[in-house]
Design a protein that fits this description.
The protein is an all-alpha fold. The protein has helices at residues 5-16, 20-29, 41-50, 55-69, 75-80, 83-88, 93-108, 120-127, 135-144, 157-167, 175-181, 189-200. Helix 1 (5-16) crosses helix 12, helix 3 (41-50) packs antiparallel against helix 7 and helix 8 packs across helix 9.
Length: 205
């Protein structure tokens, strides 16, 4: 599962063959490591827990939730938990609303994370039903948890900044420009996205 090293190399090589900036950046920065997460409810719950907090803070909240609800954090168990108990784990009122929205959709069968539509836009449309999950979170989930090869999170600031470096642009491109610049990179834009993060803090570029 996931966009593995071999497939990512193939995708980046295909883009580099027609994009000199990508070829140059690959020569300097090398290939990125794959980024793979587990498919399913727990990964989306982790995304919600991690929104707008540090990695350490998110890990602390997650550990407390596991202690309260059990290691698999079953959606039915979270829905049955009291507000104050979840708040004691570090989940704000807003995040509890988001978490409950995810759990309700999963328990009702409205959102089947094992059988999302094959069409990327349709899959994004299903994921953004979850309160607190916008297009960016949905794209990140599909890229890392499902390994979809052509996901391009053009609204991500690090993707924009990485593209600025890779292509030697005068300024960081807007979301619209970032989307347009990668049109010719289909169906390998997922590999390109991971590479932009890889290049984002590379001082040699």
């Amino acid at each position: 599962m996931g966009l593995g090293a071999e497939r990512m190399r193939e995708g980046l090589d295909a883009i580099a063959a027609r994009e000199p900036g990508m070829a140059r950046a690959l020569a300097i920065a090398g290939y990125p490591e794959p980024r793979i997460r587990e498919r399913g409810y727990a990964t989306l719950l982790r995304t919600i827990v991690g929104q707008q907090v540090s990695v350490a803070a998110a890990a602390s909240v997650w550990n407390k939730l596991e202690a309260l609800l059990g290691e698999n954090l079953a959606p039915e168990v979270l829905l049955a938990a009291e507000f104050d108990a979840l708040r004691g784990c570090g989940l704000s009122r807003q995040k509890q609303g988001y978490a409950r929205s995810l759990c309700e959709l999963v328990v009702a069968g409205t959102l089947d994370l094992e059988n999302l539509p094959a069409d990327d836009e349709e899959a994004i449309g299903q994921l953004v039903q979850i309160k607190g999950v916008g297009r960016w979170s949905a794209e990140i989930y599909l890229l890392f948890a499902e390994g979809r090869p052509d996901i391009w999170p053009a609204g991500d600031l690090a993707v924009q900044a990485g593209l600025h470096k890779i292509l030697g642009l005068d300024a960081r491109p807007s979301e619209k420009e970032t989307r347009a610049l990668a049109e010719g990179w289909r169906p390998h834009r997922g590999s390109a996205a991971i590479f932009t993060w890889h290049c984002y803090n590379n001082a040699a570029l």
